[in-house]
Records
---
Amino acid sequence: MPLLTLSVNDRAWSGHVPESATLLEVLREHVALTGTKYGCGEGQCGSCTVLADGKAVRACRTAPTAVRAVTTIEGLAKGGRLHPIQQAFLDAQAFQCGFCTPGMVMGAAALLARTPQPTDEQIRQALDGHLCRCGTYPRIVRAVREAAATLAGEVRRG
Amino acid sequence: MAEDARTRYKRRFDEDAGPETYTIVEAPEDLTPDRRAFLAALGGGLLFLVTVRAGARDMPVRVQVAPDGTYRAFTGKMEMGQGSRTLLTQAFAEELGVPVSQVDLVMGDTLLCPDDGGTWASVTTPVTVPVIRKAAAAVRAERSGSREALVTPDAWTTLGQSVPSVTGPSIVTGAKLYPSDLRVPGLRHAAIVRSPHHTATLTAYDVTAAERLQGVRVLREGDLLAVVADDMTTARRAAALVTATWAPTPLAPQADWAHRFKQTAVAPVEQPRARYPPLLRRGDIDAGLSSAVRRLSSSYWAAPIAHVPLEPRAAVALWNDDGVTVHCGVQAPFLCRQEVAQALQLQPSRVRIVAHDSGGAYGGKQRGECEIEAARVARLAGTPIRIAWTREEEFTCSYTRPAGLVEVESGVDANGRLQAMRFANYNSGAAGLAPQYDIPHHWIGFFRSDAGVRQGSYRSLAAVVNNFALEAHVDEWAAALQVDPVEFRLRHISDARLREAITRTTRRFGWAAARAAATPRAAGPSASAQRGVGMSCNLEKDARLALCVEVEVRGRDVRVLRMVATGDFGAALNPDALQNQMTGAMVQGLGGALWEHVTYDATAQQTRRLSQYRVPRFRDLPSMDVQLIDRRDVEPAGAGESPITLTAPAIAAAIFAATGQRQRTLPLAPGR
C-alpha cells in the first residue's frame, strides 16, 4: 500500500492507504475522522463535503493524491469555540437526524468564503447539491443567512 | 418465518394504550443470568424498575440514580431524527424535577433498556411519554417521600418548552457517532457479494482473483457470500472481483401490478381494536349509493418508493462467550434481537442489539437484514465485523413503501353532501383509512395483496396513499358541484379543531384571493406557465392538519411556490421541534408527490443509485409558513409522520386548478 501524506485540519498526517481509496475513505477509515459522511458515493448528496486546498469538494469523488490540505468538520471550530456557521445551525436547530449537517456546514463555509453576503437564492443554489432527507432546508437557509451576518459583524469589528 | 415473529412482536404493542397505574420495585435480588449481565453493565447506583400499567399491558421503565445524584434513564426507543431523544429526556426531567442536563438517556440497547416497543407509528409521544412521566413521577415521590403526582401542564418548566436537541452540539461539530461511524478494536470489514437480482439463489462462484488481494478472505454460508479484509476499500474491491452466478426469481411486470393486486386480494375483516383497523363500515353502503342523486367513481395509483435515509445501514457485530452484540441503527432493537436470534439459531438472550442514533430511517430501518449479515459474517470470520451498506445496497437490499391501488365510488344527496362512499385500498395498507369527513354510509377497506417484491413500512404508512385518494376524490366532487373546495370540505367536517386548522390556514394563505388570481384562464408570469392553488387536510393519528399550496405548471414541470400549513397536535411538548418535524415531513412529501418511484424489470430493481432517484432539493423549496396550534390541555399527538400525508393531494388539486387536468397517479411529475 502506498504512503500518503496530507495536511488534515492543519496537522500533518501520513499513512499507508489502499491504492484505490478515495479521500472520503482515507479520512473516515485511516485518519479516523468520521465527521465527514458517506451518503451516495457518486457526488449526489453532499454529505462528504470537505474543503480541499480551500475549495469545497466531494470527498467520495476525490483522489487523496489530488489534494494537499484538507479541512473537515472537525477542524472548523477554533480554540474550543464553534465556528459561526456551526453556531448558526445550532441556534436555528437546522437539522433533524443531523447526518447531512457536516457536509452542509462545509458547503456553507465555502459559499461564505467566496460570497460573504449571499441572497437566499444564492444560498439555495450553492447548496443544491446537498441533500437533507429530513427536509430541514428552510432552517438551513436561515442558518446560513444568520452566519453570514455574524461573520460580517466580526469582519467589521476587525 | 421472519414475518411471523415480526407480526407477533408488533401485535404486542398494537393496541393503543393510556397509562393507568404503576408499581415500583428496587432492583430485585433474585437475578437471572440475563439480569446479572444487565446489572454488571449498569454499574453502581440506585436502580428503579417501574412498571406502568398502560391499557392492557405493563410498560417497563428503568431509572438509575448515579452516586453524584444525576439520573440515567433507559428506553428501547431509538432516535432517527424525529427528536425522541430530546423529547423523552424532557419527559424524564420534568417529572424527576431536574434540568434536562441531569438526565442521561440510554436508548435502544436490549441489554440495558426495557422493551417498550419499536420506534414506529408515532407512538413515542402519545404512549411512551405518558408512561415515562408516570414512572419518573413515581421515582421522584419515592425518593422525596412525597405523594406521587404528575406536574400539571400549566406548571411545566421543561415539557412544553422548545428545548434544543440534546445532541445538537455533537451534530454541528461532527463528533456525533452514527452507526456507520462505529469501530471496535480488532475490527475487520466485510463486503457482501450481491446478486444483481431482487431475489436469487447462488449457483456457482469463483473467488480466485479476489483472494489474490492481500489479507482477503472469502466466506460463504448458504447464499451469503462475504469478502472480509482489513479495510472497507479492499473488501469492496475484492467483492467486485468475485464472479458469481445466480438463479433469479422472476418478478411480475410492473405494468401488471394493479391487475395482480386485485387478483391476489384478500378481503378485509373487521378488527376494531387494531391500531389500523382494515375495515370501517357505517350505515348501508348499497342503499346509500343507489339512492344518491349523483355518483362518481375514480381510481388512484401510487408507485412504490424508497426511503433513502441519508445514512445507509451499517452494523458492527462482535462475539464473545455471552453471544453476539450488534451495534447498528435499527428502529426496533428488540424485534431485531429476535430476527438475529432466529437467523443464527440462538437464544434471544445471547443477542444484544445496540441501536445508535441513526442518520434517518422514515420507516426504512425496521428490519434486521444488515444486522443479521454482520452477525453471520462475524461468526464465520471469528473476528469483529463491520458491514456498511453502499447506497446501491440501501436501494436494492431493503424494502420499498408498497405500491397502492385505491378505487373509490361515492354519491351525493340533493343538497350536495356526500352520503355514501365505497373506498377500497389494494396492497398499500390500512393506516389512515378513517376519513376526516362525515359520510353517513361508507365501506372503507384494505385488501392485502401479493406484490411479489419486498415492501414494508414507510413514514405514516398507507396514510399517504389513503389521504391522497380521499382528498383527490373530495376535490373532484367540489369541482363537479362547482363548490369551493374549502367550503365543500367544511360541509362534511364536524371536528371543531380540524375546522379551526383549516380556517386558520386558508386565512393566512389568502385562499379566496389566491384562488381568484390563479385559475387556468388567468395568464401566469409567462404565456406557458399556469398557476393554481389547492388544499388538503387530515385528521390522522389525532393530529389536525391543513395545507394550502400554490403551484406553477410549465409543460410537465410542476413547481410548488408556496406552502401554508397549520398543525394542531394537542399539547406541543417541544414546539420548535414539532414545527421542524411538520415542515420536514411536508418537504419530504414533495418527493413522493412529484417524482419518486422505484422501477423493476423482469428480475431486478432498476432504481439503484441516487442519480436515478429524484428527491426534494434546495431548488424545490417553496416559501413555507408552518404554524402550530398549541393546546396545553389536550393529550399530545405524535407528529413525525402525519404531516407527510398533506403534500400530494394539495399539489394534485393545485395542478387541476392550474391546468384543468386531474391526475390520479403518484408521482405526479415522473421523469422531471
Note: Chain B has three domains: 2-173, 179-249+313-388, 264-305+400-666.
---
Amino acid sequence: MSTTAVKENEPVLAAPKPEDLAAVLIAKNRPQRPSALSTSVTFGWRAMLKIKHVPEQLFDVTAFPIMMTLMFTYLFGGALSGSPTEYLQFLLPGIMASSILMITMYTGISVNTDIEKGVFDRFRTLPIWRPSAMVGYLLGDMLRYLIASVVILGVGLIMGFRPGGGVGGVAAAILLLLAFSFAFSWIWTMFGLLLRSEKSVMGVSMMVLFPLTFLSNIYVDPKTMPGWLQAFVDVNPVTHVVAAVRSMMSGDWDGGEITWVLIAGGVILAIFGTLTMRLYNRK
Amino acid sequence: MSELAIEASGLVKVFGENRAVDGIDLKVPAGTVYGVLGPNGAGKTTAVKMLATLLRPNGGEARIFGKDVVREADAVRSMVSLTGQYASVDEDLTGTENLVLIGRLTGHRKPAARARAEELLAAFGLTEAAGRQVKNYSGGMRRRIDIAASILNTPDVLFLDEPTTGLDPRSRNQVWDIVRAIVRHGTTVLLTTQYLDEADQLASRIAVIDRGKVIAEGTKGQLKASVGAGAVHVRLREADQRSEAEALLVRTLQAQVVLESDPVALTARLSGESTEQGAAEHASHALGELARAGIIVDTFSLGQPSLDEVFLALTDRTATPEESAA
C-alpha cells in the first residue's frame, strides 16, 4: 500500500491529449436542472463521504455521549434516586437529548471552517436551490445524531435502562429528537456563517448550550428549584424536548409536549433557516 | 463586432474603505480567450467573482450573454463555471467523488454522472489518481481536476482565476493546452494572470488592471507595442568599462539604459516600435558593436517585457500627463 502510494506520488502523469479533451467537450445535452430534494440529498451524500474519509470525526458522537451517560448516572444516581439504575430510568432520555443538542454545535464549527474553502465558490455558482448545501450538511449531521442516540441507548440498556414504551416508543422518541435537532442546528449554521473563527463559534455555542441543557429538567425534578429558576426551566425549549422524549420512551405519550416541540422546531427553523440563507447568499 | 459573451460597465466593489474594483469596463467577444493581467491585489479576483455571481457589485452592471449577473443570476449560473485561485474542489473527497458530486448537482443521474466523471478523468490524465483524495494531489493535478469539474457541464463561459500560479513549467504548459482545447470547442474563457507570457500565449485580447481600474486594454500586439519589446541585460567582466558600454548601447539601440546596482550590470529597454524579431536583431547588432569596441561581455540576454516592466511603462505613461499638467 505505502509503496504504491509513493510510486503514485511521482508526477509521471500522462499529459492530457487534445483529442480526448475535444471528445469530452463535444456539447453534451445539458440535463434538466435538478430538484431541491435531489441537490440536498447529493450534499448529504457529500457529508457521508467526508465521514467515510475521516472516521475519527465520529469521536464526538460516540465517546462523548458514553462519557456523559456514565458520568452523570453514577455521580448523581445514589444521591438523587437511591441507586444509579433507578436514576437512569429518569436520566437517560434527558442525557440523550442533552448530548445530541450539545453535538449540534459541531455543525456550526464545520460550516465555519468549510465555507472558507474554495469549493463553496463552486457550489454557489451552480444553478441549484440555494439552501441545499446547508440542508445537505444537516442531513449528514442527522446520521451523526442518530449514531449518538443509538450509542447512548446501547450504553443505557447495558446499564439497566428499561423503557416502558418499548421499541416503538423509543424509536419515535429518537425520531422526534432528530427532527428537533435538525431545526435547532440552523442556529449554529447561522453562527457558523456569522462569526469569523471556529473558536468564536465554539465559545458562543457553549454559552448558549450550557445554560439551556443544565437549567432544565434533565438532571433533577424542577420542583426542587427556586421559583425564578423554575420559571426559566419552564420556558426552556430543552425542558419540553426532554419531557416529550421521556414521555414517549416511557410509553405514556404526552401529546401537548410533543406538539410544543414540533411547533418550536418549526419556529426555530423558520427564523434561523432564513437568517442562515441570508448570510450564505451574502458571503 | 461578434456577439459579446461578457459585458461589464462601470463595475465597482467596495470593501470598507478599499475600492477593490473601481469602475471596470470589459467587452469579451464570444469564443475567445480574454486575459485580465494584473499584480496581486489589483482586483482581478473580485472582478471575476462579481461576473460569476459570487459577489454583488456596489455599482455598475455586468451581463453574460445578455443576462444580468444580479437580476438574472440563476440564468447566468447555468452558463458559467469558475475555477478559483484556490482549489474549487473538495479536498477531502477523491477525484471521482468530486466529479460525481458536480455531475449530480448539475442534474445528471447517478450512472450518467459516473460515466461523465470517468470520461473526464481519462481525458485529463487522472485515471490513476481517481480513487485518491484530492488533498494528496500535486499542484498540477489539482488544477486539472478543478478545470475538469468546471467543464463537466460544458459551460458557455469559463472563468479561470490564476490557473497556473504556483505550477511547475510542465504543468503550466499542460494547463495551457487544456485552455486552448476548451476555447477551440467554443467556450469563452476569461483568464486572470500575473504573467504576461501566459496572457501572451493564450489570450487574444488583454486588459491590464491595477488598483481596481483598467489601465490598458487591447490586442496583444497593441499592448506590446505600447509597452516595449523587452530589455537587453548585459553583464561585463570589467566594471570600469561600464560607462563606455552604456554610451555604446544608447547609440546602437536608441534605448533607455539603466545602470544596475551591480557595478558590472546594465539594462537597455528597447523601444515599443520594434517587433520581437527586430528586438533580437537589434540586440545581436549591439553585441557585435560591444565586441568591436573591445568591451568584454560575460553574459548577455534578451528578456521579454516582464509584468513589472509593463507596469512601469503603463503607470509611467498615466502619470506623465498629470505631471505636465501640474
Note: Residues 229-304 of chain B form a domain with the Alpha-Beta Plaits fold (CATH 3.30.70.600).
